[in-house]
């Protein structure tokens, strides 16, 4: 359904990845089943220096910034090297080249294996995984993401962020119910953990269980009354449940607030289609 696809562009699969939520709506994403089956037709780019494979073409401006930092790597102290790796990774994050960002975050984490560093590895590869189209890329990135989150959980078994994201890596796998099971485990630990509730809401929408999705988003709004993503999820669920007047009211409320321009354009189109 068109409305459902629009929501998934805006909401994404996991509401806790801020960068992913900000960039997901700017990328043309295929139907979930097609995305898993389709192989990428784009030319892979390889870096002879460090052999990381890029998920997308790298803009010249980004290449120049990265090249400048790499020049400084020669003879750099371990501390300076870590700083430069971080700078390179952040350049890639800003350009939405998440696989390459993960590559450098992992270099940092291997040398300094703390919770923060492994979290950055997991989240970068998780975003690369969600945007990948070829089965080979999906498999490679999901394994990297799982490793990052598992490393976090070894250091802190109660990290609900890592456990939620780890669960969501199973959505496109042969064991999608494992995702739901892990999210429910998170909610057993903290019934009000919004990212897990939002993720379950998104999964309910994917399976066309809009009544359940609506309840999930309503629960989020009881916890966080100003959660824009929950309002959007609720509005799209209401459309699918043929409760369009209620959906229109929510869209108008969201559009009256501060909102990302791309998201605003999508919501405006949806609202106009209801008139």
From TrEMBL:
<feature type="region of interest" description="Disordered">
    <location>
        <begin position="33"/>
        <end position="54"/>
    </location>
</feature>
<protein>
    <submittedName>
        <fullName>Tetratricopeptide repeat protein</fullName>
    </submittedName>
</protein>
<dbReference type="InterPro" id="IPR011990">
    <property type="entry name" value="TPR-like_helical_dom_sf"/>
</dbReference>
<feature type="repeat" description="TPR">
    <location>
        <begin position="160"/>
        <end position="193"/>
    </location>
</feature>
<dbReference type="Pfam" id="PF14559">
    <property type="entry name" value="TPR_19"/>
</dbReference>
<keyword id="KW-0802">TPR repeat</keyword>
<feature type="repeat" description="TPR">
    <location>
        <begin position="194"/>
        <end position="227"/>
    </location>
</feature>
<dbReference type="InterPro" id="IPR019734">
    <property type="entry name" value="TPR_rpt"/>
</dbReference>
């Amino acid at each position: 359904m068109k409305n459902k696809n629009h929501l998934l562009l805006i909401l994404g699969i996991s509401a806790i990845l801020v960068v992913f939520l900000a960039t997901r709506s700017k990328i043309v994403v295929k139907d979930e089943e097609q995305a898993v089956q389709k192989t990428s037709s784009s030319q892979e780019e390889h870096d002879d220096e460090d052999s990381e494979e890029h998920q997308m073409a790298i803009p010249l401006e980004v290449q120049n910034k990265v090249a400048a930092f790499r020049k400084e790597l020669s003879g750099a102290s371990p501390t300076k090297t870590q700083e430069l790796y971080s700078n390179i990774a952040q350049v890639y994050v800003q350009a939405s080249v998440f696989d390459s960002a993960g590559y450098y975050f992992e270099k940092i984490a291997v040398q300094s294996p703390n919770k923060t560093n492994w979290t950055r590895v997991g989240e970068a590869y998780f975003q690369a995984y969600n945007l990948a189209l070829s089965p080979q890329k999906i498999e490679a990135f999901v394994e990297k993401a799982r490793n990052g989150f598992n490393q976090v959980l070894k250091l802190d078994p109660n990290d609900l962020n890592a456990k939620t994201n780890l669960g969501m890596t199973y959505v496109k796998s042969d064991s999608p119910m494992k995702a739901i099971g892990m999210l429910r485990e998170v909610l057993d630990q903290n019934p009000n953990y919004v990212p897990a509730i939002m993720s379950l809401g998104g999964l309910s929408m994917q399976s066309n269980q809009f009544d359940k999705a609506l309840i999930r988003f309503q629960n989020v709004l009881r916890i966080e009354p100003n959660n824009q993503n929950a309002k959007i999820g609720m509005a799209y669920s209401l459309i699918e449940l043929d409760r369009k007047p209620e959906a229109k009211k929510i869209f108008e409320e969201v559009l009256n607030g501060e909102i990302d321009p791309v998201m605003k354009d999508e919501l405006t189109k949806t609202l106009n289609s209801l008139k």
